[in-house]
Amino acid sequence: MKTNKALLASLFALGLLGSAGATQAATWCESGKPVKFAGLNWESGMLLTDVMQFVLEKGYDCKTDSLPGNSITMENALGTNDIQVFAEEWVGRSEVWKKAEAAGKVVGVGAPVVGAVEGWYVPRYVIEGDVKRKLEAKAPDLKNVADLAQYASVFKDPEEPSKGRFYNCPAGWTCELDNTQMLKEYGLEDKFTNFRPGTGPALDAAALSSYKRGEPILLYYWTPTPLMGQIDLVKLEEKPGVDKTVSIKVGLSKTFHEQAPELVGVLEKVNIPLDILNQNLGRMSKERIESPKLAKIFLKEHPEVWQAWVSEDAAKKINAAL
Q1: Which of 11, 39, 77, 283 is the most exposed place for a label (fewest CB within 10 A)?
Q2: Which range of residues forms the domain containing residue 288?
Q3: Rounded distance, CA 248 to CA 102, Å?
Q4: Does a structural domain hold residue 130?
Q5: d(CA 236, CA 217)
Q6: Residue 238 confidence (pLDDT)
Q7: Does the reported pTM lie above 0.85?
Q8: Are residues 160 and 305 in the same domain?
């Protein structure tokens, strides 16, 4: 018996260690444990989340769930493994993420979006005017964030007319803290009110209504988003040496990263090319398509994109589900 045990142990070590990862991964979903996603509340984050959930559910027989909350709350939940996946983590921008990563509680994998940009924007007509719309250039020398100090009156706050208004991110978004710090660093906090819309759609609505009326507006914004395809904005430059290149990864809890390597292998391959992503986000906005429905449309229309992420067997199951 001892010999047999020794032999089995050797065979296991030699022959089965290679598939240990797959066995472990299967265990996560086979055990009935759901893969919990952060319920992100911006368009690209929603779409990526719904695409990933559909792929894991239909291709790998997993149960999935998504928990709503702002990005800071969700990053904290990722660090404690209360959720397992944060589909669109803007790495390097969040102090919560940096601390959790340094403590070995979270892992960023893959590159779901490449080419994302963020910054402070104004409509092009503010700087260049618009002959067709008979709009004069109200800030012709505005190029840098630092220049805003002399243009506060152009972006007058209706509630505090002695100041300009800066449209920040909604409270609870990581970018809101970054932008508040920037107002201080550039010496603008006495000249501009730090206005935080209640939601992402409220920020979009403010931008669109100002744009339609040809009024100046100063706002933080980013791509990929539907809004960038609808209005012509100019990004203000920052101090020399400031690098705002954004690295986006799929954020995973350390526990999930260790215990579900097969699923991690899928999520780290997820990438939607920026042009296809922007097209889909544009449709979401114009045709008012809910994100879960749009995820299925994307999967039907772009098998050449997502089939590269999954095994042949999973691809067959996903196609059958569509």
Answers
A1: 11
A2: 21-114+247-321
A3: 17
A4: yes
A5: 13
A6: 94
A7: no
A8: no
